[in-house]
Write a structure and sequence with these properties.
Helix 2 runs antiparallel to helix 3 (about 70-100). Helix content is about 90%, strand content about 0%. By secondary structure, the protein is mostly helical. It has helices spanning about 1-35, 40-60, 70-100, 105-140.
């Protein structure tokens, strides 16, 4: 059991950090929807941007054991746009699919949950590969 936990510890940490930042993103987005009248996709975009800054700092050090530097920023930023587009597409699609069947807060939270599930594993494995590449290139330069 200990070997299994050790093997999957990076993924477990990534899940925890992602969950924490998903809450941050969702709260910010709901505040923007309810207090500033933004629609779901713009509010989601602002939430993602703020949450991603927190997520970058947490996963760079805590999951991928990287340094906060221009190489890891490049990895994260290059995947950030892809992840944001994927999440916003899913939010848009789910909101359209649900329509007016639910109130806007429940509709947004359902769409947000779906977008997080869809993007989670895709982004984890892409970032894991990117961090490995910049780490190996740093080792070759040393």
């Amino acid at each position: 059991m200990e070997k299994l936990i050790k093997k999957f510890l990076p993924l477990i940490k990534y899940v925890c950090f992602s969950g924490m930042t998903a809450v941050i993103e969702s709260v910010i987005s709901l505040l923007l929807i309810n207090f500033y009248g933004l629609s779901e996709v713009p509010a989601n975009t602002v939430g993602i941007i703020i949450g991603s800054i927190v997520h970058y700092l947490c996963v760079t050090r805590g999951v991928f054991h990287g340094k906060v530097n221009w190489k890891t920023i490049a990895v994260y930023a290059s995947t950030f746009l892809l992840g944001m587009l994927l999440q916003n597409f899913v939010v848009w699609g789910i909101v359209k699919l649900i329509g007016d069947a639910l109130n806007e807060n429940i509709r947004y939270l359902a769409a947000k949950a779906c977008s997080l599930v869809v993007s989670f594993f895709f982004m984890y494995f892409i970032r894991k590969l990117g961090y490995r590449m910049v780490s190996e290139s740093g080792n070759k330069e040393a």
